[in-house]
Amino acid sequence: MYPLLGFVLGSSFVLYIGSPYGFGLGSNWLLYIGVPLIIGIWAQIRVSSAFSHWSKVRASGNITGAECAREILQAAQIHDVNVVETNDFLGDHYDPTKKQLHLSSNVYNTPSVAALGIAAHESGHAIQHARAYAPLKARMAIVPVTMIASQMLPFIIIGGLFFRISGLITLGIWCYLILLVFQLITLPVEFDASRRAKIILREMRI
Question: In the sheet where 100-104 sits, what is the strand order?
């Protein structure tokens, strides 16, 4: 969720400095930066709130997120993916380059509904990778460029707002477009992983 919040802030900034109103922080500041910021924070709060609620509900299968992930991978005939614990809160993700499924401690060690849902979702990404799911391959291909663009945006924001370097507008727009393409590719990848997770949990009756 934090990368999404950064994307919202960066894109709203580019829209602002590229607007006819220029760099003057007038009445449009709320429209171009304030509203996207509020939406990003609201989405982040919703995710954290949902996780907090369902992490208190014990799963009927009484297995942890790590055990759930391993059972799913085994059922999918995937034997080369390691399930590892990470200390980052809600830092759960699948790393296709290392073939590692990272689960945060609250997911890895907890037999809750939230833990199983997240573990199944991330396992869905591992299944996508094993099945050569095209949108996932496309996302993997543009990750290096996306990382460069996201690292450049803070400097673009500083240069644009404080030093008023107009040439940064074009650079900012390009960075924004790269991040936009990445987010658009990410949507079907995430939706498909969630769809796979629901099917898996239903079939395995976990």
Answer: 82-86, 100-104, 93-95
Residue 101 backbone phi and psi in degrees, to 5: -105, 105
The C-alpha atoms of residue 58 and residue 27 are separated, in whole angstroms, by 49
Q: Between the CA of residue 31 and those of 12, 38, 165, 199, what are the distances in Å?
A: 9, 11, 22, 41
| Helix, coil or strand: residue 36 | helix
- DSSP assignments along 68-110, one per residue: HHHHHHHHTT--S-EEEEE-STT--EEETTTTEEEEEHHHHS-
CB-facing half-sphere around the CA of 11: CA atoms within 13 A: 19
State the sign of the Cα–Cα–Cα–Cα dihedral 62, 83, 1, 131. Answer: negative
pTM equals: 0.74
Q: Which of 67, 71, 122, 190 is catalytic?
A: 122
Handedness of CA 193, 199, 202, 206 (dihedral sign): negative
Half-sphere exposure of 120 (CA within 13 A, CB side): 24
Three-state DSSP class for 58? strand
**pLDDT (tens digit, 9 = 90+) per residue, 125-170?**
999 999 999 999 999 999 999 999 888 877 877 776 677 676 776 7
d(CA 75, CA 127): 10
Known active-site residue 122: yes
